[in-house]
Amino acid sequence: MRIILKLKVIKRREMIRRGIMIMLFLICNLELWAQDINISLKHFPSEHYMLIGYKGTKNDTIAKGSLDKQGNAKVQLPAFVKEYQGMASFVIGEDSKMDLILNSESFSIASDFAYPDTRTTRFTGSEENKFFKDYLLGEEVTDNPKLYASQLKKEIDYLKRILVFERASGEEIEKLRSDFLNQDMLVLYHSSYWKTMLSYWVAMYNNRIKDDDKLIIDALYVFDNIKQEKVLDEFTNNLIDICEQYGWEYIKNQLVQHSYNSGRLKSPTRNLAILLKSRGVQIGETPPDFLLDKKTKLSSLFKDKVLLFFYDSNCDLCKNEIEALQNQSEKLIEKKIKIVSVSVDSSKEELEENTKKFLWKYKLNDPNNHIFYPYGVIMTPTYFVIEKGKITGRYAQLFDTGLLQ
Question: PANTHER family, alphabetically (predicted)?
């Protein structure tokens, strides 16, 4: 009897152990895989495929493999895709591709066409892709804020309008300008339309609006309203690349200055990382000290607010800022703000000639960049605001410093 009971206990323990193992296996699989996509494309037996997601101008391979001899496959998406809401491209072989939407759904796609695309593909079990397909076919769809495809529709509708901006009236241009400020940049970031949208948006300013200040105002508004750092980083990098393409150093400088002052980009990448790194001192740091005259150091002024102005007398943008600073210097001095200007004038005589109308005391020249370099100043005009001995901001325009308020 005891032996039988003991065998039953052992058997029960073994069953419990197996049950635990099965549960662990299921949990592991749930963690490894987010969803499934069943593929049926009879014209592509044994063909290679890739599923590609979008991150601004960058692509991310989500899954890859081969269809079987009947053109079927079960694509298991990794767990990290569970957080992905956006467009994806299913690429088959060398030149066939269909766009679809990923948003936590497991679904099936099938097509009898030799060159399948979203419009000719059958989607089963996916509200997202049914909406997207119907919209692309021109059928009437009802907006649903829960669907990524419904949000993407709004971005595509806007893109259709901005693609023909050259033929738009002045009133339509202003509407395009204001409407862009309401675009959902995260939705665009996970779509194939990101680069096209930004390119045409900037081209509209270059070809029709022709006002640098309006582009700066709008770009900084969009910057301030992007909530995700990865999207903000991509937006800023792309705009910097476009500015370099057009030779817009002033606009690029404004964008980099604003990025610097925001402190929102903790891990900047690519071009932006290089530019921010070259900017020398950071917000909250103690500014590098230097002599203002034979006896006075910059640090001796730190009991007051200090406005430190770097410029080039031969720079047109600097000439505008010099005039602005001259016009506002009395007001700043009355507010007990100490002004220090540093130019790259080549000689003391040139400095004296160019600064004879300046009302402030400390006017330096730095032809060998002994002051420019420690501050990371590579573009002029550049202002630093110093309060209580710490850098509190870096700007390209006096108006942006907030000291005139």
Answer: PROTEIN DIPZ (PTHR42852:SF13), THIOL:DISULFIDE INTERCHANGE PROTEIN DSBE (PTHR42852)
List alpha helices for 226-315, DSSP H: 229-246, 249-262, 270-277
Structure tokens at 166: 């050259």
Whether 192 is in a domain gets the answer: yes
Maximum CA pair distance of the chain?
114
Its domain, for residue 349, covers 298-401
Token representation of residue 32: 């490894």
The two tokens of residue 359 are 């009302």
Q: Which two tokens stand for residue 356?
A: 């004879």
Residues in contact with 239: Cβ distance below 8 Å, sequence separation at least 6, in sequence order: 198, 202, 219, 255
Same domain for 315 and 394, yes or no, is: yes
Is residue 27 in some structural domain?
Answer: no
Q: Are 81 and 102 in contact (CB under 8 A)?
A: yes
Instruction: Extract the runs of DSSP E, i.e. beta strands, from 312-360.
Output: 337-343
> What CATH number is given to the structural domain containing 313?
3.40.30.10
Domain assignment of residue 85, yes or no = yes
What is the per-residue pLDDT across 136-164, written as a single tens digit (0 to 9) for each?
999 999 999 999 999 999 999 999 999 99
- Residue 89 belongs to what H/E stretch? strand 86-92
Same domain assignment for residues 178 and 246:
yes
Predicted model pTM: 0.73
DSSP SS3 for 64: strand
Q: Of 337, 343, 367, which is closest to residue 356 (Cα–Cα)?
A: 343
Assign residue 117 the CATH number of its domain.
2.60.40.10
Query: What does the DSSP 8-state code read for residue 43?
Result: T
Looking at residue 346, what is its pLDDT? Answer: 81
